[in-house]
Amino acid sequence: MNRRDFLRTGALLTAGGLAGAAKRISGPAADMIETPGLPTVRLGTLEVSRLILGSNPFWGYSHKSAQLDEEMKRHHTDERIMQILDEAADCGLTALASPPDERWVDLWARYLEKGGRLKVWISQCHGSPEQMPEEIDRSLKAGAKAIFIQGARVEEQFGRGNFHVLQSWIERIKEAGLPAGAAAHWPEIHPELERRKFPTDFYYQCLYNVSKSNDYSAAERDEAMATIMGLEKPVIAYKILAAGRLTASEGFEYAFNHIARKDGVCVGIYAQKAVDQIRQNATYTETLTPK
Question: What's the CA gap between 80 and 216, in Å, rounded?
Answer without folding.
Answer: 30
